[in-house]
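Contributing new records

If you add data, match the layout below exactly. Sequence lines come first and carry their own label; structure lines follow with theirs. Keep one chain per record. Anything else will be rejected by the validation script.
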Amino acid sequence: MRGLLPSQEDDVDPISAYAVPAGAGDDRPFVRCNMISTLDGAITMNGRSGMLGGAADGRIFQVLRSHADVILVGAGTVRAERYGPVRLSGELRQWRQRQGLSPVPPIAVVTRSGNLDWSSPFFTEAEERPLVLTTGDCDAGEQQRGERVADFVVAGDERVDPRRVLDHFQGVGYRSVLLEGGPGLNAEVVHAGLLDELCLTLSPRLVAGDGPRVLAGPELSHPLDLDIVHLLEDGGFLFCRLAVRSNLQA
């Protein structure tokens, strides 16, 4: 993997390159979003992101997960991408354990309805018990079934509030959050002013269509400015690590 910015380097160590900034998570959990996009702005093809990536993208996906205390994702993404439990390589599991972390991070799923497949491997084979972040009006039957395989947290009345989600994470000691979408959840986190970094993989592909972008929903009142932390390249894929300007760490 080559480094292009801020300096040119032939052999970049991704684990070091994606280290969480010093001091991040002291005041509230550090939130980093990981997404992939084609050159024409699509984040999926046929409803899934898998066809856009490659081996290098898969490696960065794993590295980013290894740096997280918890992974945050919307229920729609879990269903569309057919999420399974977190799997990390032996190298990354050992690295996490040296940092005093569990071998894999848990996944927290945002859902109002609780409409999830409780018998899927995502729940039944999870090494770390998943969290279900829901609302006070979640379907009681779904919650009863889900509590056999997941821990439920009420984080809003009629919608899941990202601020309440982070308050819960902070309360249980999570300092680093990896947000994996989808676009609606990404936008809610941005609108709440809680995004610290965007890790965007630019896939050297074009797909056309009218699929979703990184963010969905109402337009922001002002553009969100980001600064480049680094730009890496491998196999034609560009890996952009971008920090929200107001939260940029020196």
